[in-house]
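Quarterly update, task 2.4: iron/sulfur cluster-bound model.
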Amino acid sequence: MIPFQYARANDVADAIKQIATDPSAKFIAGGTNLIDLIKYDVEGPSRLIDISHLPLRSVEPTSAGGVLIGAMVPNTDLAYHPLIEQRYPLLSRAILSGASQQLRNMASTGGNLLQRTRCFYYYDTATPCNKREPGSGCSAIDGVNRINAILGTSEACIATHPSDMCVALAALEATVHVAGPAGARTIAFADFHRLPGNTPQRDTNLEPDEIITAIELPPKGFSANYSYLKIRDRLSYAFALVSVAAALELDGDTIKEARLALGGVAHKPWRSTAAEAALLGQRTDAAAFAKAADWLLHGAKGYGHNNFKIGLARRAIIRTLGQAARGTPQSNSDKKIR
Amino acid sequence: MASYIGSATSRVDGRAKVTGEAKYAGEFNVPGLVHGYVVESTIPKGRIVRIDISGALEVDGVIDVLTHRNRPQMADNDDAYKDEVATEKGSPYRPLYDDIVLFSGQPLALVLAEDWETARVAASLVKVEYQKAPHVTDLHAERANAFAIDKPEEPRGDAEKAFASAAVRHEAEYFIPTEHHNPMELFASTAIWDDGKLTVYDKTQGVQNVQQYLCGVFKLKPDAVRVMSPYMGGGFGSGLRPQYQVVLAVLAARALKRPVRVMLSRAQMYALGHRPATIERLALGANSDGTLDAMTHEAIAVTSQFEEFARNDTGWGNLLYKSPNAKFEHKLVKLDVPTSCDMRAPGAATGVYALECAMDELAVALKMDPVQLRLQCYSDRDQGADIPYTSKQLRECYRQGAAAFGWDKRKAEPRSMREGSDLVGWGMASGVWEALQMPTTVRIVLTANGHAEVATAASDIGTGTYTIMAQVAADMLGLPIDNISVKLGDSTLPQCPLEGGSWIASSVCNAIANTARAVRGDLLKLAIGMKDSPLTGTGVDDVALIDGKIISRRDATRAVSIASAMQSGNADRITREEANKVAEDKSRARNVHSAIFAEVRVDEQLGVIRVTRVVNAVAAGRILNPKTAHSQVMGGVVWGIGMALHEETLFDHRFGRVMNANIAEYHVPVNADVHDIKVIFVDEPDEIVNPLGIKGLGEIGIVGVAAAIANAVYHATGKRVRDLPITLDKMVQFN
Ligand SMILES: Cc1cc2nc3c(=O)[nH]c(=O)nc-3n(C[C@H](O)[C@H](O)[C@H](O)COP(=O)(O)OP(=O)(O)OC[C@H]3O[C@@H](n4cnc5c(N)ncnc54)[C@H](O)[C@@H]3O)c2cc1C
Ligand code: SF4
C-alpha cells in the first residue's frame, strides 16, 4: 500500500480532466474492489478521483423503450428498482446472487463492470502473474486453477471475469455509455470486455482516460422466460464456478428468440451466436438445450483443477434453459433470492 | 430462590459486547502508542541475505524497523520459548531471531510508526533478498518420509490377523486438508513498559501461559510482567500458544521505550497454526452379526520441520466400540510450514470423521442399519485402559437423536429417497471427547453489602465463561446473579489453566464451589459467634447459603442473614482463595458423547449439496446453561458443515504458499448454508466425574458432524467421497 492523494470530481467533465492530467490516477466509485487491490499492493494509484458523488444515480426509461442506468447507481438500488424487477428480472436476480448485501450497497454499476479477476495469483504479489506484471508468467496455468477459465483463454492468462451482473447485461445486450477527452461514445456490451490474448493486463476496451457514465438496456427484457443460475462452492457470498443467464422468447413451446451467457468461465461473459441460433425454432426440450450447450462450450479446455467446469457448465446450461422455458427461474441449488 | 445453575441465563457480558464497552487486545489505547506492521517472508525456506529498510525509514512517521539484526536481546535457548502447550519434541519458533526462513509468512521485520496506516505503507517498501532452499509443503508427496511417533494407544491382540480372517471387512483412507481457525478478531498485542514493568494486552486463551512465556523469552521476573485478555473474539485453539505478535510487540516496546501495538492482517493469520492436513487409514473387520473383531486406525499428519505436533487421532475407537483386536499408529510428515496447532476438538474432529465414515461403510457392507451397528459394538468400557466410565449416556443419545430426527423412516438403500431433482440422504455418526478437569484456583471476595467478586485468570473466548461462573457463584453464595461480578483474563489473578480442551467449565466451577464453601465456613463462624446464634452446633456442610442467609440444611428456621453475621463480626469483607480437587482416580474413564443425524439434499445433475437438517444429541453431564450450551453446540455443527463441504486451505506447493489466505476465498458456511439445527442435551447425572457433575462442551459439538454429513451424502447419491471437503466436482463425474 502506498500513500495517495484524494480528490472529488465535481462533474463528468471534471473527472475526465482530472484523469487526463495524471496517468497514474484512478477513479474510485464504491471502492469495494479497488481498495482491496490497493491494500494487497496490486494497485498503487498516485491519486484517487472520487466519482461516487457524480449525478449518475438515476434509472430512467428511454425514449427508445429501454432503460438508462447511471454508472453510480448502487447494485442494491438497481436490483430492487421497480423498472428492473418488472421488466428485466434477469438482471435483478444476477445482481442479487453476487457478493453480500453490504457489498452490493457500496458497489456501483460502473465499478461492477470494471472489477478485476479473483485469480488467486493476481492478488498475491509474491507470485508471477501476467495480468498484474506483464511478462512475469502465468502461475495459474499449472497452479491452483479451480476458479479459472475454460473458454477464450490464452497462454498468457486464464483468468475469469467474476461479475454476475455482467453476465445478465451481456445476455440482455446492453450498451455501455462512456465519456472521455474525445467526447462521448457507446460500446456494445459484447465489445466491452476483452479476451486475454497477449495483453491480459487489459480487461476492457475502455480507454484509461474514459469514464463509464451509464448502461443502456434495450426494450426487450425477457421478463416471462428467464433464469439466472449460479453454481458455487457455498450457497451465498461466493463467486461463481459457473453461472448461466438464459432468456427466451417463446411461442407456445417453440423458441422464437434466445439469449444465453456464461459467467465464471472466461475473461468476459461468454456468448455464442451459434448457440443462440441453434435454439431458434426449436422446441423447449433437453435435446435442444444440450445442442446449444455444446455450441456454447465449443473449444472449452480445462487446466487440471477446473476440468470439471466444462461438464458442469453443460448441465447448468440445460438446467437454466429449462427453468427459463418453464417460467420457474429459481432452482433449489441456488441461493434463495426471495 | 430459583437455582441459576441449569437455567438459560443470558450472557452477563452481552451488553458490554454489543455496546463496544468490552475491549479487545487491539483496542487499548495509551498515550504515545506506536503501531507495528509485520513484513512477512514470501518464500517458505531459505536464508535472508539482505533486508533493505531504507525505503521504509524514509516514510514520514516511521520511527524504526526492527529485524533480526537490530532487535533487542532475547533468550537463546529452546526452553525459554517452550510455553505450556509447546510440543514435547522440537525447537519452538523464535520470532525475529535470526536469518533463517522456516515458512512462508514468517515475520522478518517489524515496521514501527506513529500510526498503523503509515506502518503498513512503509512495510510494503521493505525489500528482502533471499537465498532460497528447496522446500516441501505437500503431505501426499512427502508421505514416504512419514515417521511414527510413540504409540498413541497400546495394541490389543493381533489386528492384522483378525482383519484378514474377518467375515466382513472395510478398509479405506480418508483425508482432511489443512484448515485454519479464522476467528473474527485479528491477533493483536499491546505492550507497555512502565518503570521496569511490562503490561501486555494480548489476544490469548491463556494469560498466564503468555506471562510465563514472556518471562522466559525476555528473562523477566514473574512479578514484572502482567498479561491481560479480558475478552476474545474467538480463539478455537489458535490462541492457546503465544503467537508471534506478542513477542514483536514486547521487543519493539523495549527497543523504543514506548508502548507498541502489533496487529496482524487477516492474510498474516494464515501463517499462525492450523489444523494439520491428515491422512487417516481405517481397517475394520466384523463378524456377520456386526460385532467388531479387528480395528486398525492409522494417521499421517503434518507438522513443521522444527516441532513435532501430534494429537490423539486414532484412539477414539477404543472409547466407542468393542473390538478384541486393535492397532493404532500415528505418523508425522515434516513440511516447511508453521507448526500445526490445536483447532476445535483437535485429533477428534479429524480422527472421528474417518472412524465414523468407516463405520458407515462397514454398516453398508454388513447390510445393517448404521445405528444398529454402533449398538452392536457399543462399549461400556474404555477399551484401551480397560476401565468403566464415570457415566456414558451414548445409547440415549442414539435413541433420542434418532427419534427427534425420524430415523426410523429411513430407507436403507442409497438413492432411494428422492424429491424432485434432489436426492435426499440421511446419515449419522457418533461423537466423543474428553471430560477433563485441570487444577484451578478461584478467589471470592464477599463484601458486607451482599456483593461478591469471583476471579480467576481464565480467558472467556466467547463460550460464556463469565456467565456460567456468575451463575454458579450466585447459587453457591445464595446471592442474586446481579450481585456477582466476575473478573477474568488477567495473569495476576489466581492460577487458571488455558481455556481449551473443554476443561474450563468443570475446573472453574468446581473451584468456585470449593471457594464458596470456605467463604461459607467463615460466615458460619461469624454467625455462631453471634449471641444466641440459631446455628450453634452446625458444621459447614450442615448449612447452605440461600437468599442472602446462612441456613441450616435440616431446619430452615435456623438461619442468620449474611449481612448480620458479617456486621456482628465486624467483617466488611471475606476473601478466600481455593482450588478444585482434580481426581487422581484412574479407575474410570471421563468422556462426553454425542450422536449426530444429518439430512442432505443433493442436486443429482449439478452436485450441489445442502445440509437441510442436523440433530445433535449430546450427553455431557450437567448442563450449566442451556442457552450458552446450545450456542456452543450449534456453532460446532455449523463448523462441521464447513469441514464437510467448504473448508480447505489451498497451497500452491511450487511456491509453498497459501493461495486463499482471506475469508472471501477460504470458505466457511454462511447463513444460506445453514438450515435446521436441533440440539438435544441428554440427561447425564454424574457424581463421580467431579462434585458438580460438569463435563464440558467446548469441543464435542463439531466431533462427528462431518462424518454424519459425508454418510448422508453417500446415502443420497451412492457416491462415497473420502477426501474433504466434499465439493460438487467430487460428487458428479462431469464429463
Ligand atoms: C468479498 C467480495 C465478494 C464479492 N462477490 C461478488 C460476486 O459474487 N459477484 C459479483 O458479481 N461481484 C462480487 N464482488 C465484486 C463486487 O461486485 C465489485 O467489487 C463491485 O461491483 C465493484 O464496484 P465498485 O463501485 O465498488 O468499484 P470500485 O472498487 O470503486 O472500482 C473498481 C474499478 O473500476 C473503476 N471504476 C469504477 N467506476 C468507474 C466508472 N464509472 N468509470 C470508469 N472507471 C470506473 C475503478 O477505477 C476501479 O479500477 C465481490 C466483492 C468482494 C469484495
Ligand atoms: S490467469 Fe491471469 S490473472 Fe491468473 S495468474 Fe495467470 S496471468 Fe495472472
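Highlight for this quarter: The two ends of chain A are 40 Å apart (CA to CA).
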